[in-house]
Amino acid sequence: MCMEANTELKVLDLVDIAKRIWGKRRLFLKTLSIAFVVSAIFIFGFPRDYATDIKLAPELGGSSMTSTLGSLASSFGFDLDNLQSNDAITPLLYPDLMEDNGFVTGLFNVRVKSADGDINTTYHDYLMKYQKPIIWLLPKAWLQNLFKSSKEGGDEAFDPYNLSKEEDEIAGSIRDKIKIDFDKKTAVISISVKDQDPLICKTIGDSVLSRLQDFITEYRTNKARIDFQYYQELARQAKDEYDKARLKYANTSDANTKVAMKSIEINLEDLENEMQMKYNAYTTVNTQMLTAKAKVQERTPAFTILKGASVPVKPSSPKRMLFVAVCMILTFIVTAVYVNVKRDI
Fold it and tell me: pLDDT tens-digit profile of 261-277?
């Protein structure tokens, strides 16, 4: 009996609340109309962004699961035996590249072109001159431009680690637009880019992908390239010494063709032995140079593009209709609470 009474009381309460809301339908119509207009005006003041993402992974090799995972890990300097990399930079640190001014400012001079063709400039100038601002922040931007210093950099060489305030703000804007992530489970690198123009969004995505591949390749092959250059120089020196020894032996032999003296024979024999030693040294160093050259290729990682950058068709943010809908729902709830609480008081 008690449970039935509680259930009946709850039903009566809901019916009463519904009647109160219906009785104040004009108030709800007014508040919801105001919420719709205000939220629509507010959200339409924000420029729309487009987004694209890229997924990158090394080519897999081997027939067994072990060799496949081993190839995957080794291409990124990742050791599956102890989950640590033998290199100073592991794949987990690749997202931190966006914190480096040198990597970020390397995008300043990338040529970008808008989808409508009206903009054709560098990414630096695009971010500085062609970004659509939030309408509500226009007065603030106008005041900042009014009091902005007109100091020029002159002919000084650009230093990515000594940026002006304006350059630092542009670099910060790039960091907000580009994200790099590494999935430890799949060993896949993800690059996400957002921008106000769909074609520029794709262009920057491709540029970041290329620069990330160059960075990984340069880092992974750095030691091997240094070794190759070292042995290449040794081989060049050994070749010069061998050529000199051979020329000296040939000249001495030609000058003493008709001379039958024991001292001349001994001298020629010594020169021939020296020439042979120089030749052996040259062939040895040359072999080491070729091995080092092969090592560079061996250490060069191969990449597979799992998902390439595409020109986005629809904007990704802000979600205007969703924002307006949420605002209207919240307005309805607040108004309903107000109507019922006021009557109870």
Answer: 667 778 778 888 888 89
